[in-house]
Amino acid sequence: MTPGTLIAMTLDDGTAHHATVRAIIPEENNLTRTRAVRLTPQFGTTDKPLAVNQSVTLQIPVGVPRPVLSVHKDAVIQRSGSSIVYVVQDDTAQIRTIQLGESVGSRFEVVSGLSEGDVVVIRGNERLRPNDKVQISAQSS
Questions:
Q1: Shortest CA distance to 121 belongs to which of 78, 99, 79, 89?
Q2: How far is it, in rounded angstroms, from Cα 21 to Cα 7?
Q3: 113 and which of 11, 98, 125, 137 could share a cystine (Cβ 3.0–4.6 Å)?
Q4: Domains present along the chain, CATH in parentheses
């Protein structure tokens, strides 16, 4: 982090806001190996009144942002040491072996095996067999 970095934050009422890094205090805590950071909050509308010393949840970037292809965790099936998903092609389920990367929330990064725009089965995929007919009922994110 450097001064000027924009940080996403969430209050306990669930509202999302941002804060800008104002300063990083040049004194390290020897026990925790951490430094205090001063932020300038940018509050919008909140559902509850704000309080002095109120807790917030910060989403601090731990690396350089990069675009990734991801798939919902419920779509992935582990078989014989491989990760597979069922891709919908022409209203049928086709098995596809994929290579997974990092876990991000309820999703996995897909390193290889899928392309952007591929539709995968998330519910009922454990009972599917290749070439089974499928019907898309709703899209998930």
A1: 89
A2: 7
A3: 98
A4: 6-59 (no CATH), 70-127 (2.40.420.20)
